[in-house]
Amino acid sequence: MKPESQASRPRPAADLYGWDASWSRFVDAPDRRGVTRCWHLLDTGATSTTRLTVLAVHGNPTWSYTWRHLAAAVPDDVRVIAPDQLEMGFSERSGELRRLGDRIADLVALTDVLELSGDVVVVAHDWGGPVSLGWLQHVHASHDALDVVGLVLTNTAVHQPPESSAPTLIRNARRPLWLGQVTVETSAFLRGMFELSNPRTPAEVRRGYLAPYDTPNRRKAIGEFVADIPLEADHPSAAVLDAVADGLADLGDVPTLLVWGAGDRVFSDIYLHDLEARLPHADVHRHPKAGHLVSEDTDVASIVVDWLETLGADGETSPPPSAPVDLSAALRDPAIADRVAVREMGTDGRTVTFGELDDVVQRTAEGLFGTGGVQVGDRVALMIPPGVDLAIALYACWRMGAVPVLIDGGLGPAQMSAAMKVADPDHLIGIRRALAAARTLRWPGRRIAVEPTNRVARRLLGVEHDLPSLQDAPSVTLPVVDPDAEAAVVFTSGATGPSKGVRYSAARIDAQIRTLVEQYDISANDSLVAAFAPFALYGPAMGLPSTVPDMDVSSPGTLTAATLLDAVEAVDASLVFASPAAILSVLETLDELGGRDRTALDHVRLLLSAGAPVPGHVLRAAVDRLVPNAAAHTPYGMTECLPVADIDLVSLESLGPDALHHLGVCVGSPVDGVELLIDPLDKLGVPTGRPTTEPGVLGEVRVRAAHQRLGYDRLWHTTHLASPADGWHATGDVGAVDTDGRLWIGGRTGHVIRTATGPVAPTPIERAVDMLDGIRRSAAVGVGPAGAQVVVVIAETSDVGRRPRQSSLDRIDRIRAAVTEATGHDVAACLEVASLPVDRRHNSKIDRTHLADWATGVLEGGSVRNP
Amino acid sequence: MRVLVTGATSLLGRHTVARLLDAGHDVVVFQRTPCGLDGVVEHLGSVTDANVVDTAMAGVDGVIHLAAKVDPVGDWADFEAINVEGAVTVHAAARAAGVSRFVYVSSPSVAHDGSSISGDGAAPADPERAHGHYSVSKAMAERAVLAASDNTMPVVAVRPHLVIGPGDTQLIGRIVDRARKGRMPLVGSGLALVDTTWVDNAAASLLAALDALPGVGGRAFVVSNGEPRTVHELIARITAAAGVDWSPRAVPARAAIAGGAAAEAVWERSGRGGEPPMTAFGAEQLSTAHWFDQRETRTALGWAPEVSLADGWVRLAASFNEG
Q: Of A344, A455, A661, A832, which is most buried with the most CB atoms under 10 A?
């Protein structure tokens, strides 16, 4: 093939979608044979302020176009250089076959010509990964003038992990008959790339990717690139790739970020986990849905830009190591060895004493660590309902330094599977039903059965061990647990979107337990009925006899008055923890008690209603009609930090005239050890980032406490965004503090209504509407663009039919008057529905994001279906 | 200031004149038939007649050009003559007479293609997108007069959305009339949000625009009460104010738009005057959202509505009781 002349050289069209013509640059550099070749680069150019150069390397079959978002997003003092690899993009077509080793040498020669120096961050995608890593290892060893200060890898691979069949798509494309046809003669391989995208790639972007590959001649290297993937050990590039993979072990001092689109059918999670194992220090951000062209499917550029900001920053000084923690210490206390620890309700319920629990926890921990093959730091998914077995497995994990992964059953199968894929547990301990689900849904992790399991059942369920045999396995010495290492990953249901895994250390769990003990004066005289999942786990750690009522804990509506009384009697409970939905359900079934002796309920001293805001009248009814001698408290908090604040019923009923009812509902004073800040919202409802303690200012609530989360699992960017400053957690709730230091919560930042006269939180509006006759509950949402939104009220009423409708003029008048009185805002429309969409776990968190979309469609004149 | 108001017989025209007089301006009115307003200098004629317009323009400092053909149906030639040529003629006469401020009263429909509008600002007038003879002709005229805006005679376009108030025959009159006859259907769900402008507020906005010149020259602003309501609620409020029993009878939106278009065609071919029972434009207006971001308008014009819709309904009911 004749080299292209300067004049006829193709270049990106001036009007190429998303492309800045000033980025295009052509540079001559010798290739690894010493022949001068012409490269096309995306180069944002150096300025006097340039402090960092990003070298971005694309894969196959793309070109530097894939880095256009990054080039547009970096700050002025960052330069992006993204070459089109030779034979690719708008770089020269020499006609030569270039293998991995050639491409690495070509890139080294290019950066020499470019005199690349100073601080460099390598960013790579797809097979740009091995090429740039090969380059990095070369310059890391040999260049003094150049310092690689960061590495970002997106959907790439350096190795075929043994458990993967090589990517089927690649393998298919490599079959000799196919290869030329699919990759070169037609643009099928190129177009196939877009089939891997989620969401669908827009047409103008497809045209951008295809621009340099318009003829078979210009596509030749796409086929050669595919052919150069070493799927076999004797492949000419296998040794080079192995060297690249092995070289990662030397990059422990290079800050690394892995950004992954988990919807990629070529580079699946298996490759992410392979890279995580080779680069254990890496920050990881995994997008659950984005596909192979991850930079198109999600905002990789913002993630990378934010990550670059953290490089070299003094940042958070790492806190001093915590004192040793044993979360199962209470089990060892000889003073309570004969006391009931866990009592199961129901017909075949079991009971264990603290002494028995300590013994079986110890044997289980040793069995898991020894025979079971569970390593310190291994993640262990626990798929066990609350009860004796869950207590055994949980405290055994903690005692040996394994990391329980707790996934709320209320999430439903799809979200549970998604959570399993994120957390990627090494082991799964489950009851029979969970093991069957694990097999069917291909959940990761070596399976351990809770019940005794024979050989046939083991094979059927893919089970390696069962707890009874592990408990009888030879004794081993347990390691010392690092109090600051990961000790739990908790997935709870969010109001919207996929559930996030929240990571905790043993020290932070210990702090949480201590906070609860202090806040509620919990002592050895107490005993606990926990109808609320998270707290059901902590009874043994607090040294309290505990039980869970005979109910489905992930579905609070299943608690009845009779089952609650049974449970209270069983442990002579002084503490009852339940969610508002569970309390409502109990109140609705009070008739069940009939003439039963209710003395046990008189012994309850504390009713704790947690998990969602609870209306005062519900708490009042619960106390008056159920537990007359109890103080009723409701803690405020979230999976990331619980509790943050607390209010008791008496205080709730006697809020003073300085109340901030127009900003939210009162959730009480912060509990000891919790610091609070308010990050004020600007006119468009966006937090300004200038937090304050000033009373009466509406803003995002920030908290800091010893018992808050470490971070989110495999969501580096989400953690970063929720960690505005040293040790603080941005809750995503909006609220304000009053002059007495009490916190008022107005809803989620994402649900703030951005009106022309400023932001308004939904809760005060809903509170005002909920007090009107005929309204069961309501949601306030914004319709229209941010800053010009109008308030729309959607009410659940007792008299609406099956179809949604507009409220009567009379009711509209009453709603408008109430809302204007409470908040000063107009209400554009009042709609009524038979039921508002809510999450299953609490049966009370209204899905306002969904409702806002629904109301937008209805109020544009669209069809009116139920939300 | 001496201000010429064209089309002063309309509801908005009468309110505008009254406000100008209250503010101490000298007012000249120009339209085809006597307006019956006191305290004004009146010139009668067509806006397409350059000679008469020139005469009316003598000594004028500011112009509020309201005259337009607003019927939902009719021949394009008439719309073009009155709304396009008329505006150009008035504008040319104003320039020749040394007028220093020109307010062109336009319509939000000049920028929209019939799809729903939820909280948008004022997009540029676009005859290619506008639907119906009225909107297309207004768009052409707005483009022409805004393009001619300069320091000598700055021009601002004000687009009030659905001007309503006591005495309104355009919207309120039709709704009440049809509801009385039991022929006021609810098109589609009736839940599309629509902006309206109480006539006092619309008139005030025109004066505010006159005052805001030359600073806002060359720009267009949508004006509304900033209180969007569903079509269902608007009809219910209007009929309630008029004391007419009305309960919604739903007509699917698509059928209404198609039916409206068919009605227009039959009506025009039959040679009958006036307007058909339902027009495609009307059906579209009543089944898709039309409400606007008012922030820019309020800041730039230094204006805000004085009469809320709640006050407006009380005034409307009073006017029906009196009249």
A: A832
